[in-house]
Write a structure and sequence with these properties.
The protein is mostly beta strands and 743 residues long. It contains ten helices and 52 strands. The strands form 14 sheets. Strands 19, 20, 21, 22, 24, 25, 26, 27, 31 and 32 form a ten-stranded antiparallel β-sheet that branches. Strands 36, 38, 39, 44, 45, 46, 49 and 50 form an eight-stranded antiparallel β-sheet that branches. A hairpin with a 2-residue loop joins strand 5 and strand 6.
């Protein structure tokens, strides 16, 4: 039975104090005089009267020394700034240490606190200057902008129509006048003058009237036909004419053909038929047959499971003979005599007992979670080297391997957190966590080794010891006369919440030249060699790679409560995508409602739907209605920045800093944004790299994205290891480079 919580906490605290006292006590203990600053108010100085007679000096009071809230009040001489400053000041102390540590980071942290304009909370486009106030700030807006943050466009058209004679068109920060059809602006840019008028203004009804010599003509826009009886322009249903090869959507004045994007198709240049989506930028996706990819199982379960058995108790050490118990997820190794019943024995290795597997004792064959698992037993011979392998990753967190028994017995887990190695271990019911060494998630190969020396576990990086942990116990567990050790690679055999300290076990990493207790096992190498999905890219760069065959999704909340509007729920969608595409068609990001409605999508497309032109574009759409478009050079092999901002009353799209053009009227934009807001009030999922099985007409693009992409949503970088689901072919932290053209 595990100890009671209080006893476990006491034991854990005692072990931690002993460990710190033995190695670095001098770095965590404060001198009595310094500690007293935290436990009692400082003694007032002799010249206190002089200090209180003037405004306190921030650097002297709160940077050179630790200040109380009362002393901070002396600095600012008002309550609002003091109440704003002091909790954040304590946070600086917590993160960077007390003033006596002389940390530059601490000084910078404190100096930036009083300035309400750092970072600048005002809208950059609409703000002339941000003024720092007492515990507050003031955004001085440019002409044409308003609101507390200068993020609201002033609609000049609402006052006397902006001085326009006919039409006033508002735009961010400005406006301009326009005229109805048949009119043109005069030199004053405000007055409209009739330039073409029919003798009888009622002759064409809703249609355009064009004067002709001796007659007139009623003209309709493209996609419409004039009805003489009703004197109206009526929409032509092109879909009824069978113009599209696959799906067709009719719209007022036009139509759009759609192809099965999830099936790898897009519109042909004729805008009616379909063709295959082919790469226009080649990526170097060659793989190394001598490598093992650890990120294959998004569920966090191990990619390899090994089981070692021995007859006599020795420490967890390597063996001279290879282990004969294994299971590789996705590719179960052949098991001798699968389906037959073998009788366990405690005798030594018998010749021929393993049915073609020399040096094995008979065991049994069973079914594992991914297929057959062969459990064979060998006699272990003591060596010091426990495990050694080469490792490469850009991923900051994940599990390399687990070794031990079951969850409640002795075990160790070697993982990565914040780019550094972390060892979690449990012996005798007591868990410990230690982390040290250099940051190794920089994408270059590192040699990692674990070695047991005199009841110590020694972790080395490139032969340099980075951790040495004393252990008391044996990782092998006695079961029915045999000692067992389980070893899993790329995951743990139980839930991550049951670790000493929870960690995301998913690790986009690569391993090669591995030695597990007994040396490099050729059988595992042959299995990896035969399964390309278990292999790593030969060369990688930082980023996430989408192969064009799947997607990931998150459950994100885009609503927030704004202080400016009290308790009214507001919403905001800000997306920044750094992309290096391999194809010109694919979904970057989409919000999908519970009824499979694509509420919002950002995608690459190679045609202009209304102009019927082939052109490489980024499209922003709500429920299939295109709000904005922007050109992009997809096939240049370079990285591009796509930025989308959608909030109440506004939707913008930028590519490489250039703003895209709107495809809807002001009224149409407001209508679409109202539709999006209703979706956000319900349940939506954020899909990246593709869409689920939705109708091909539900969005301008339904094809999977292919290429490298890093996403930031509402100022938070999306980590694919944290997704609710990710297709196993998507690599979360590594991307192959673009192939260089041959000279």
């Amino acid at each position: 039975m595990p100890p009671a919580p209080a006893l476990a906490a006491a034991l854990g605290t005692a072990l931690l104090v002993l460990l710190l006292a033995s190695e670095s006590a001098h770095t965590v203990m404060l001198r009595a005089r310094e500690a007293a600053q935290f436990l009692r108010p400082r003694q007032r100085r002799a010249y206190q009267v002089f200090e209180e007679a003037k405004q306190g000096h921030l650097e002297r009071e709160c940077i050179e020394e630790l200040c109380s809230q009362e002393e901070a009040r002396e600095v600012f001489e008002n309550d609002p700034e003091t109440d704003y400053f002091y909790p954040r000041y304590l946070d600086c102390v917590s993160r960077h240490g007390p003033p006596h540590s002389k940390s530059p980071a601490f000084a910078a942290c404190v100096q930036n606190l009083p300035d309400q304009c750092s970072p600048n909370p005002c809208n950059k486009e609409g703000t002339q200057v941000c003024q720092d106030l007492m515990g507050n700030f003031y955004c001085q807006c440019r002409a044409g902008w308003g609101g507390r943050l200068c993020d609201r466009d002033v609609n000049e058209c609402s006052q006397q129509n902006g001085g326009c004679n006919q039409i006033c068109l508002n735009k961010p920060g400005s406006f301009h006048c326009a005229c109805y059809s048949g009119y043109a602006l005069t030199v004053d840019s405000r007055t409209c003058q009739d330039v073409d008028e029919c003798a009888d203004g009622r002759a064409c009804g809703e249609a355009h009237c064009s004067n002709l010599p001796g007659s007139y003509a009623c003209l309709c826009d493209e996609g419409y036909a004039f009805s003489p009886q009703e004197k109206t322009c009526q929409d032509v249903d092109e879909c009824a004419e069978g113009r599209c090869e696959q799906a067709c959507v009719n719209s007022p004045g036009g139509y759009t053909c759609h192809c099965d994007g999830r099936g790898g198709l897009k519109l042909s240049p004729d805008m009616n038929t379909c063709e295959d989506i082919l790469p226009c930028v080649p990526f170097n996706v060659a793989k190394s047959v001598k490598s093992l990819y650890l990120g294959r199982m998004f569920s966090g379960t191990p990619v390899i499971r090994l089981r070692f058995k021995r007859l006599q108790p020795t420490r967890w050490e390597a063996a001279r003979s290879p282990p004969r118990s294994w299971h590789i997820h996705g590719s179960p190794l052949p098991s001798p005599g699968f389906g037959s019943a073998w009788t366990p024995t405690t005798a030594g290795p018998a010749s021929g007992a393993g049915e073609g597997v020399p040096g094995c004792l008979p065991a049994r064959v069973g079914l594992g979670p991914m297929g057959p698992v062969c459990h064979l037993m060998i006699l272990m011979l003591a060596l010091r080297l426990l495990a050694e392998f080469d490792f490469r990753t850009f991923d900051p967190e994940g599990v390399l391997f687990f070794a031990g028994g079951h969850q409640d017995s002795a075990w160790i887990v070697l993982g990565l957190r914040a780019g550094r190695l972390e060892l979690q271990l449990r012996y005798g019911g007591v868990g410990r966590v230690t982390s040290s060494g250099p940051v190794i998630n920089h994408g270059t190969w590192q040699t990692i080794s674990v070695e047991e020396l005199d009841r110590n576990l020694v972790i080395k990086v490139n032969k340099d010891a980075v951790m040495k942990i004393a252990v008391a116990g044996d990782l092998f567990q006695l079961d029915r006369g045999l000692y067992h050790l389980n070893l899993t690679v790329g995951g743990i055999p139980f839930k991550e919440k049951d670790l000493v300290q929870p960690i995301n076990p998913r690790l986009d990493g690569c391993m090669r030249s591995w030695n597990w207790l007994s040396g490099e096992d050729t059988t595992i190498q042959e299995t990896v060699k035969a399964n390309s999905k278990m292999q790593c890219f030969s060369v990688t760069e930082r980023g996430s790679f989408y192969p064009g065959t799947g997607f990931a999704f998150y459950s994100l909340d885009y609503t927030r409560t704004s202080a400016a509007v009290g308790t009214e729920a507001a919403w905001e969608i800000e997306v920044v995508a750094w992309i290096r595409p391999a194809t010109d068609t694919g979904v970057l990001l989409a919000l999908v409602g519970g009824d499979r409605v694509v509420a919002l999508s950002v995608a690459l497309v190679d045609y202009h739907s209304t102009k019927k032109l082939k052109k490489q574009l980024v499209v922003l759409a709500v429920e299939g209605v295109t709000l904005a478009l922007m050109e992009i050079k997809v096939c240049d092999g370079q990285e591009h920045r796509v930025a989308v901002s959608v909030q109440k009353g506004e939707a913008t799209l930028e590519v490489d800093g250039t703003r895209g053009q709107s495809e809807v009227s002001a009224a149409g934009l407001q209508e679409s944004l109202a539709v999006l807001e209703r979706h956000l009030q319900g349940s939506v999922l954020t899909f990246v790299g593709g869409l689920p099985d939705v109708p091909v007409t539900s969005a301008p693009v339904t094809a999977f994205y292919r290429g490298c992409m890093t996403l930031e949503v509402n100022q938070q970088t999306l980590d694919l290891d944290e997704a609710a689901y990710k297709h196993s072919d998507i690599t979360s932290h590594s991307c192959p480079p673009v192939e260089q053209a041959s000279p």
